[in-house]
Amino acid sequence: MQTPGIDHHSGINLGVPPVTYGQGDRPPRGNYAAARPDYTCDQDWAAYTEQDHDLYRRLYERQAAQLPELACEEFIEAVQQLGAHDRIPRFDELSERLYRRTRWEVVAVPGLIPEEAFFKLLAERRFPVTHWIRRPEEFDYVVEPDVFHDLFGHVPLLFNPVFADYMQAYGEGGLKASRLDACELLARLYWYTVEFGLIRTPQGVRAYGAGILSSAGELRYSVRSPQPSRVPFGVERIMRTRYKIDTYQATYFVIDSFQQLFDATAPDFAPIYAAVRAQPPIEAGTVLPDETRIPPAAA
Ligand code: PHE
Ligand code: CO
Fold it and tell me: Which segments constitute the Biopterin-dependent aromatic amino acid hydroxylase family profile domain (predicted)?
């Protein structure tokens, strides 16, 4: 096997090792050899085909149609900031708008990147966005995050000042968790908030997590289905809870506001990691005896 990221003609390291998801029997799609040491690369906007742009437009339209009844207000308001949706946005133009609002930028990456590199970028208020788009036959489901998931799912809330600060704090917290060997616990917090979080509103629960907002089917399921458990957000509770990567979630955690999320995660996690490690994990789907189930939103 070739060493990834090494140019075998010159022997010069041109990039970084690729990162795979799950069992890793599929080769990663991105060109990691073209990435810089911090894992960022060029978006190469001119390389997108008409088919790529068309696919983005169709994905965008399918999700946008569901937002009014299923997404939180903050997301609906901010999604317009992504700009024209008939083409894949140019990251440089988007970054300019974003920087003016919250001092965040988006940067291109070849795909999934290692934890440390990811945390570092977040701590610097640079959000890594995969630059390639899924294949047309993956319209309904794609295993690895692509440009649609990363942009449509994650970038709108970076325009929200409180959420933007939470993401930076998470990056700093990640660097600290690496030193404390607690990345697995911290990853659960990311999963159940940034990716699959629900928020309480006067109209019932609504989605703010990128994984559900960019999903064709899970968006409605997470907000409306009577099947999954919905329980109040809690840092320790989340860190104890396992999650599913290959089906819809069995549990969603519900926050009251982004300020609650920011404030609840501000304390030092070192003692919390220790407390979590001393307790057994909780399986996805479990509702604890002292917890109140939060009902799905009414249609
Ligand atoms: N307060 C956390 C710590 O001390 C850092 C953090 C903030 C983690 C926000 C996640 C989200 O580790
Ligand atoms: Co994501």
Answer: 1-299
- Reading the block at residue 180, the tokens are 């404390």
Instruction: Report how far residue 16's alpha carbon sits from residue 39's, in angstroms, rounded to the nearest whole number.
Output: 7
Q: Which residues lie at CB < 5 A from ion ligand 2?
A: 210
Residue 53 beta carbon below 6 angstroms from any ligand 1 atom: no
- Between the CA of 236 and the centroid of ligand 1 the distance, in Å, is 12
Q: Are 185 and 241 in contact (CB under 8 A)?
A: no
pTM, rounded to two decimals: 0.92
Cα 35 from Cα 41, distance rounded (Å): 5
CA of residue 106 to ligand 1 center, whole Å: 22
Q: Best of 265, 268, 276 to mutate for ligand 1, by most ligand atoms within 8 A of CB?
A: 265
Assess whether the C-beta atom of 169 lies below 6 angstroms from ligand 1.
yes
* Sequential pLDDT tens for the chain (299 residues): 222 332 223 223 345 666 655 545 566 789 999 999 999 999 999 999 999 999 999 999 999 999 999 999 999 999 999 988 999 999 999 999 999 999 999 999 999 999 999 999 999 999 999 999 999 999 998 889 999 999 999 999 999 999 999 999 999 999 999 999 999 999 999 999 999 999 999 999 999 999 999 999 999 999 999 999 999 999 999 999 999 888 999 999 999 999 999 999 999 999 999 999 999 999 999 999 999 999 999 98
